[in-house]
Design goal:
CATH topology of the largest domain: TIM Barrel
Helix content: 25-40%
CATH superfamily of the largest domain: Metal-dependent hydrolases
Number of strands: 16
Radius of gyration: 21 Å
CATH class of the largest domain: Alpha Beta
Strand content: 15-25%
Shape: globular
Distance between the termini: 26 Å
CATH architecture of the largest domain: Alpha-Beta Barrel
Length: about 400
């Protein structure tokens, strides 16, 4: 058997033996000194001390200098399939205009819809590949990518096909999500309910037949869809075997309760969530997804991450990389900043961007370093894992491995 041993790493954090839900302290982080990873055909065979694994290896890839290794990062909420820029929106917000005011005046999501509709599929693919490559260099080996800037059957299909084709051109894994319920399109003449019915009847079957996405998302908000209007849409999605995720409680509440009622895998945003919503999420199997990039882009409060964890909820952190509210797109920087403001331990931050984020995508084959998992891992040029969050995203991975192959 042709086995590859990679190491030794000064410290190796496998992120194993920690719960999915609730608060974590750094004492729960397993740290293997002088660790190594034994790999066979892109999968992990064993993780342990480098010297102990040496006899089992037929090949060795030496790591020189100080290096802290951990699982590849998982960004479970992005919108990196788009065209154009919303720099004007950003300037208007910083001049005092609200997100909803800008949207009502023709900016916001609809501005990106207009530009994305004008772009060819090939142009969208180029943009996805460029952005996903930037994420990969920052340690993100798996990232979710939403549609939602097409808002018609034809244009949503263009986006989702672009995501699928882009996935074949890059080492990282792109997990597609259909967000045709991003907002009611301004060129739709019927009601919101009629639009959702049209999408579910005409788009959902094609998603299945072309294997374009297994996930359905919706934005529940004043500028998008009401909790009542989205119920038949989610029921149809569930009946067809799709997983549900929700843009919830960003500016007003109601979305997270809807997410829980439909057994959504995650409720994302939650900046407006109160103790009521936090308690409901903690009792549910729905993962709370914090999107600090949106808070930084909009200048609003953060998801109450500390309260979610203390209540016993599962917390993931994602970048929300999009052209409007979260253009930064740097997951590690955002997670570290959220940790500062919400007083999250290193264990809580790292769990939220590895195994807990993987669970929000229903991916059980990554997020930890252990036997049988994908050999997706990264290393930082330091001898102390605490330096990773201490530098607030400015300490970047020096090496990234995807399926056991080092990405230059």
């Amino acid at each position: 058997m042709d086995t590859l041993l990679i190491g030794p790493f000064t410290q190796l954090l496998p992120m194993t033996n920690m719960p999915l839900k609730g608060a974590l302290n750094d004492g729960q982080l397993k740290v293997i000194e002088h660790g190594g990873i034994l790999i066979f055909k892109g999968k992990i065979l064993a993780v342990g001390r480098f010297e102990d694994l040496k006899p089992k290896a037929s090949k060795i890839e030496l790591v020189t200098g100080h290096a802290v290794c951990m699982p590849g990062l998982v960004d479970a909420h992005t919108h990196i399939c788009y065209a154009g820029s919303r720099a004007k929106d950003y300037a208007l917000r910083n001049s005092g205009k609200s997100y909803l005011d800008i949207a009502k005046a023709g900016g916001g999501i609809w501005d990106t819809v207009t530009k994305t509709r004008k772009a060819s599929k090939e142009e969208l693919i180029t943009g996805i590949v460029q952005r996903a490559t930037t994420h990969l260099k920052s340690g993100v080996t798996t990232l979710e990518v939403k549609s939602g800037y097409g808002l018609s059957v034809e244009e949503e299909l263009k986006m989702l096909r672009a995501i699928k084709e882009a996935n074949d051109q890059i080492p990282s894994d792109l997990i597609s999500t259909c967000l045709a319920a991003h907002m009611q399109p301004k060129d739709w003449n019927g009601s919101a309910s009629e639009y959702l019915e049209m999408i579910s009847e005409n788009l959902f079957p094609i998603l299945k037949s072309e294997n374009l996405s297994h996930r359905i998302d919706a934005f529940i908000e004043e500028s998008a869809f009401s909790p009542a209007a989205i119920v038949p849409y989610f029921k149809k999605a569930r009946a067809m075997g799709f997983s549900i995720t929700v843009h919830a409680d960003q500016f007003s509440t109601g979305g997270s309760e809807t997410a829980i009622a439909h057994n959504a895998v995650s409720a994302d945003h939650l900046e407006a969530s109160t103790q009521k919503e936090i308690a409901l999420l903690a009792k549910s199997n729905t993962i709370a997804m914090a999107l600090p990039g949106a808070s930084l882009g909009l200048g609003c409060g953060f998801t109450p991450a500390r309260q979610v964890l203390d209540a016993g909820g599962a917390l993931a952190i994602a970048s929300d990389h999009n052209p409007g509210s979260a253009p930064m797109g740097d997951l590690l920087t955002q997670a570290a900043i959220l940790g500062t403001f919400e007083k999250l331990s290193n264990a809580e931050v790292l769990a939220a961007i590895t195994y807990r984020a993987a669970k929000a995508l229903k991916l059980d084959d990554r997020g930890t370093l252990q036997n049988g998992k994908q050999a997706d891992f990264i290393s930082f040029p330091t001898d102390n894992y605490q330096e990773i969050t201490y530098h607030q995203g400015q300490l970047k991975p020096i090496h990234v491995w995807k399926n056991g192959i080092k990405i230059d």
